[in-house]
Specification:
By secondary structure, the protein is of the alpha+beta class. It has 13 helices and 28 strands. The strands form 9 sheets. The protein has a 7-stranded mixed β-sheet, sandwiched between helices. A 5-stranded mixed β-sheet has the order 23-22-27-24-26.
């Protein structure tokens, strides 16, 4: 502003630079508004797109799921359903038709443990042939057969028999798996030597890095009758499904690394991947879109390549006969190794309940001479109250030890489980044969061992006490004709086996 000679102020015209500054400011305000509107619209579009895809996902009611508790850790049960429904003739040639292989079983049963406190994830696989009690029944079967009844039955079997709470359920089938791989343009795996599996159709004739499409990748992850070619001879992988789980863990890590490397920045690729999964994906009806977005946001930095993976330790049993029916090759649980894995990878510790507050009836289910009496004496020495002691029906040889408990007594059963060693598992029933809430049906090779002390550096450092050496009365008892501590047919396998020389793996960089 300038002044005339009279002293009266007179307005000056804006200079060119003033105009430019005002014009820029106006444009910036307008641009900022446009950017804000774009972001809002994009955010709305993302939500609408996510909602559109979410509505394509199949929902199933699973009332037996445990409740999520605030920011506490939670478990998602990941299931690979081997149903043949919907397979085209080319696939059915190798996997069988729905008429030939009816129903659907959990070919893959994996627990993903999420810990919000440190944004970490761990994976624990349950072998498909693990022989377990069926909830609310007096019979048992392989865990994979529970899905043939319903997802609810599978969840309940895992929660009741292993004491592992499941908060969410996610199931994929053959189609969804193949679509994921194809949407990524295939997955590269390195094969150190030729391998084949006549059951899954896998047939890699030469070693080297191979690009697998969805169908070929499915042949690999389903191969549990694998042969490898070394020094001019075809040799069968001796551990069957256990080796398959090991290879599946490796495949998942390679798959995750390739997803991470590609970044899926191309919207068409991302849309193809999501579209290829949602239509063939099943989740529990309580799993909301908000839940999924929240988990994706909180655990977005998790690198599956570094995620701990493990398989529950087991004991192998070939040509297993139960109730006069041959179940073929099954696997038994292995305590205390199973509990150690559950503690370490799922964060589930044994309930703090004194043994003096637990009454146990002991029934001889193995046919071993005087076993129930000796086991009851050993348990009494650990502080347990003993109810009925007698004999149960011998349903198999060898036999699992089963802790049967009634509703509301699972924690007491878990305490008892921690006092036993061998092929031991739990099973919930509405009523026990003896009328007590906790009933121990003894099996082959059962060992009673005191829980590890708090000062122990290793969960297995406590010295097991056999049923024939715990108390004075037991020491003077008539020795059994079959040792109570006799091992199950084969010892428990290592739960975290390294890749074998014939196993496929990531391609060399």
């Amino acid at each position: 502003m300038t002044y005339q000679e009279s002293g009266q102020p007179t307005p000056t015209r804006p200079t060119h630079s003033n105009k430019a500054r005002k014009s820029r400011a106006k444009r910036l305000r307008r641009s900022g508004l446009i950017i804000a509107l774009v972001l809002i619209l994009l955010g709305g579009s993302f939500y609408l797109y996510a909602l559109f895809r979410f509505n394509q996902i199949n929902k199933v009611g699973v009332s037996s799921l445990s409740k999520t508790i605030g920011s506490q850790p939670f478990n998602i049960l990941l299931v690979g359903d081997n149903t043949r429904t919907g397979l085209n003739p080319a696939q059915a040639k190798y996997f069988g038709t729905a008429a030939q292989v009816g129903g659907g079983r959990s070919d893959v049963t994996m627990i993903a443990h999420f810990n919000p406190a440190n944004s970490t994830v761990s994976l624990v696989s349950i072998p498909r042939d693990l022989f377990m009690p069926i909830p609310n029944s007096t019979t048992a079967n392989r865990v994979d057969d529970a899905l043939n009844v319903s997802p609810e039955q599978l969840v309940k079997t895992i929660e009741d028999d292993l004491g592992i709470p499941i908060q969410r359920y996610v199931e994929l089938n053959f189609d969804s798996f193949q679509n994921v791989v194809n949407a990524l343009g295939g997955v590269k795996m390195y094969f150190p030597m030729p391998v084949k599996d006549a059951y899954s159709g896998l047939n890699v004739k030469t070693p080297g890095c191979k690009l697998l499409n969805g169908f070929q990748a499915l042949e690999l992850v389903r191969a549990r009758h694998l042969y490898y070619y070394e020094n001019g001879v075809w040799t069968e992988d001796p551990l069957g499904d256990l080796s398959r789980i090991r290879r599946d863990h490796e495949f998942l890590k390679v798959l995750a690394a390739q997803v991470r490397a590609k970044g899926l920045l191309n919207p068409l690729e991302l849309n193809s991947l999501i579209g290829g999964v949602t239509k063939y994906l099943t989740v529990d009806s309580g799993f909301t879109l908000t839940d999924m977005i929240s988990i994706a946001e909180q655990f977005r930095n998790v690198n599956l390549s570094n995620t701990p993976t493990i398989t529950l330790p087991i004991a192998l049993e070939n040509n297993f006969v139960y109730d006069n029916a041959n179940y073929g090759d099954v696997v038994f649980p292995a305590q205390p190794q199973d509990q150690q894995v559950i503690d370490k990878y799922l964060g589930l510790t044994v309930p703090n309940i004194p043994t003096s507050a637990i009454t146990v009836s002991v029934m001889n289910g193995s046919g071993t001479y005087d076993q129930a009496t000796q086991v009851s004496q050993s348990l009494r020495a650990l502080g347990y109250k003993i109810g009925t002691v007698g004999n149960a029906k011998v349903r198999s040889t060898p036999a699992e030890t089963i802790i049967r408990y009634t509703p509301g007594h699972q924690q007491q059963a878990e305490v008892l489980l921690n006092s036993l060693s061998g092929a031991v598992i739990m099973g919930m029933v509405q009523h026990t044969a003896t009328g007590t809430p906790i009933e121990l049906v003894t099996g082959t090779g059962l060992v009673v061992a005191p829980p590890p002390s708090a000062s122990s550096s290793s969960p297995t450092s406590a010295t097991p006490t056999t049923a024939a050496s715990t108390t004075t009365a037991a020491k003077t008892a008539q020795p059994s004709t079959t040792a109570v501590t006799a091992p199950i047919t084969l010892p428990a396998t290592q739960s975290n086996q390294p890749l074998q020389p014939w196993d496929p793996r990531a391609c060399p960089s």
